[in-house]
Amino acid sequence: MSVYLDYNASAPIDLRVLDTMVEIYKNNVGNADSRTHCFGENARAVVEHARGQVAHLFGVSTSEVYFTSGATESNNIAIQGLKEYAEKSNKRHIITTAIEHKAVLETIKYMASQGYEVDIIAPDLSGRVDANVILDKVRDDTLLVSVMHVNNETGIIQPVTELGEELCRRDVLFHVDATQSSGKLVEEIRGLRYSMLSFSAHKMMGPQGIGGLILRRKSYKIPPIRAIILGGQQEGGIRPGTIPVALTAGCGKACEIAENEYKKNAVHVYAIKEKIMAELNNSGIEFHINGNQEYCMGNTLNVCFTGVSSEALMISTKQYCGLSNGSACTSKSYSPSYVLAAMGIPLVQIENSVRISWGPDTLEDYMVDNFRNMLKVAKEIKN
Length: 383
Ligand code: PMP
What we know:
The protein is α/β, with parallel strands linked by helices and 383 residues long. 42% of the residues lie in helices and 14% in strands. It is built from 13 helices and twelve strands. It has helices at residues 15-27, 38-58, 71-80, 83-89, 102-113, 131-137, 160-167, 186-191, 245-283, 310-316, 338-342, 347-351, 364-382; strands spanning 3-4, 65-68, 93-97, 117-121, 142-148, 173-177, 196-200, 211-215, 287-289, 300-305, 321-322, 353-357. A seven-stranded mixed sheet has the order 2-8-7-6-5-3-4, with helices on both faces. Strand 3 (93-97), helix 5 (102-113) and strand 4 (117-121) form a beta-alpha-beta unit. Bound molecules: 4'-deoxy-4'-aminopyridoxal-5'-phosphate.
């Protein structure tokens, strides 16, 4: 059977998470916002327990955690939800990077279409943006700086710690899309200074369709966010709609597991990376790694196989590996990765690049066997 190597698109659910959710689906009925019966109270208790688990992982208070359907929605709320404040404060300048997920980039492009001025900063060949270039762009009317923690295609860690230290001294909101680092770079996130942070449970072996937005309090006040859809007062009025009780329980459990196991997981995924590198080096195939590995996550590699089209490789090695060549959110039809293009990588190399990502439950030997078979096919394609 093919080995799944696309964890950055979505990680498989941890069976302990699934058990928690099944238990809730079987034994809990009701709406967490029903106040007239104990069914509602019990559902509320499940949600608040989960909120506590999320808060504990991120090192924030429960009143700073807002459940959403995932990072796409969190990113939209964090950005579009600022419109009213932007108009009142006359701050209409936004800074972001060229390698953000489309949930940030397209939302900011929409803001540009509404009259906001936008600076989009590109990374260099390392895959990292320069914090100073971003800071130099900050003006008196800068509303928001939005920078992802870890890029989903390259695994490169961005300088959000440095940015947070500087931006917290200025009157600028700082949003971090931490979808790929949550539950992994636990200590770094806990020490981070930010106003808003987005995450999705399914990238840390939780269920799909749930995530959150963390809104940090400053002088007891959360960032000036308004809901972007209307229809209810759930989640402090910031995210209307019936809260999915079992999904929140799954999200909370995934956070608890990540908190207990992230150190062990980091060692495991890094050991796999070393195995993959050894296989690549021994294969005789011409390759190079995109992005500076000094800044790369242990669970991701973005590899260019010289002279081997990524589309051809993925199709002809489906029986061995599930790889990708870009974000699943933009992969309906093939277009060369905008992330690699922003790094200044030539088109021919982009077309030959694949993303490999794995996780805590990836079986080393099984992965290596399949990866080796994939490399053999890559060599055949080239010849
Ligand atoms: N941001 C990043 C960095 C991501 O990798 C993803 C998922 N590919 C998202 C946001 C969107 O997450 P979701 O699809 O769970 O809403």
